[in-house]
Write a structure and sequence with these properties.
The protein is of the alpha/beta class. The protein has two domains: 241 residues, 3-Layer(aba) Sandwich (QueA-like); 79 residues, QueA-like (Thrombin, subunit H, Beta Barrel), CATH 2.40.10. It is built from nine helices and 17 strands. A hairpin with a 4-residue loop joins strand 8 and strand 9. Helix 8 packs across helix 9. The longest helix has 13 residues. It is globular. The mean pLDDT is 93.
């Protein structure tokens, strides 16, 4: 698929720089695939658009303070994005600006009592880094690390204290993500309680959001777009709840594209969900045959991105682009801290 098809023009003023005061106060564009219509609502009204017996599936990944600012022995500054722990001795796979020129075993200073030592450069552009701390390493990371906000969210002096709370969903319990599963940012305990009162249940899985989710597509087509694998885990209870709700005629409503990728990576030939842990490098594009979901709640995504391709695969290219045009005309807020779209 030519990614140029998934291009659109966006006024930078529509890129949400900060979250709204109320998480569930975001607007929600309703896309009814069968009718080809667009309607306007708010996330707090989600229950009005679902049916008793439907099941929400959310991603409970927790964002870690994965961005570190350090100094080389030469005095040069370097920024590191931790991607994934390699073991329990402090070794991480990471991305870093300019790290390709840094020799193995060079030290980097992240502040008092916190440092790192460079390991090898891997074939795919990642580096390895061993972290050291005086005392608890996790505490040092929480103290010195920053929330890894996307580059389109401008913070001249770094993330604010509010970002540590707002760039985290209410479901977060499994640490290791380096970006938020942003569709989940809209939920509150009150909204979940309202859905439960309508017999709309909620279950969780984990996909630890890594570079595969946000790396730009640099190939002419998605068929050539290879991504690093990401870890996921689907509890037995979640797989069982999906099977039970589907057998009873309920719809499976995925909250976010990462949830979709986990489910579509774990589906068996008979349509059941395989519980357990795994890794996925699945890239979903138009032509994909969805086997696990009936509806999708998602944020608005970057043009020519793999996330937008997934949405287009589910809603159709024409309907997706029409929905994005409707959203821009109506002043919807875009990207991580922006508004939502419910595709039915």
């Amino acid at each position: 698929m030519d990614l140029g098809v998934l291009d659109f023009q966006l006024d930078p003023a529509l890129i949400a720089q900060r979250p709204l005061p109320a998480r569930d106060g975001s607007r929600m564009l309703i896309v009814e695939r069968a009718r080809g219509t667009h309607l306007h609502a708010h996330v707090r009204e989600l229950g009005d658009w679902l049916r008793p017996g439907d099941l929400l599936v959310v991603n409970d990944a927790e964002v870690i303070a994965a961005r570190l600012h350090g100094r080389r022995p030469t005095g040069g500054a370097i920024e590191v994005l931790l991607v994934e722990p390699l073991d329990d001795t402090g070794w991480w796979r990471c991305l870093a600006r300019g790290a390709g020129r840094i020799p193995v075993d060079e030290a980097i200073d992240f502040g008092p009592g916190f440092a790192g030592t460079w390991g090898v450069r891997e074939h795919d552009g990642f580096r390895t880094l061993r972290l050291h701390a005086d005392g608890d390493l996790d505490a040092a990371l929480r103290r010195s690390g920053e929330v890894p906000l996307p580059p389109y969210i401008a913070r001249p002096h770094g993330p604010s204290p509010d970002d540590r709370e707002r760039y985290q969903t209410m479901f977060a319990r499994a640490p290791g993500a380096i970006a938020a599963p942003t569709a989940g940012l809209h939920f509150t305990p009150e909204l979940i309680a309202d859905l439960a009162a309508r017999d709309v249940a909620c279950v969780a899985l984990t996909l630890l959001v890594g570079p595969a989710t946000f790396l730009p597509v640099r190939t002419p087509s998605l068929a050539e777009h290879a991504v690093p694998s990401e870890r996921y885990d689907i509890p037995d209870a979640t797989a069982a709840a999906i099977a039970a709700r589907r057998a009873a005629g309920g719809r499976i409503v995925a909250v976010g594209t990462t949830t979709v990728r986990a489910l579509e990576s774990a589906v068996e030939l008979d349509g059941s969900i395989r519980p357990g842990s795994g890794r996925t490098d699945l890239v979903i594009a138009p032509g994909h045959a969805f086997r696990t979901i009936d509806a999708l709640l998602t944020n608005f995504h970057l043009p020519q991105s793999s996330l937008l391709a997934l949405v287009a695969a589910f809603a159709g290219i024409d309907q997706t682009l029409a929905a994005y045009r409707a959203a821009t005309r109506s002043g919807y807020r875009f990207y991580s801290y922006g508004d939502a779209m419910l595709i039915l």
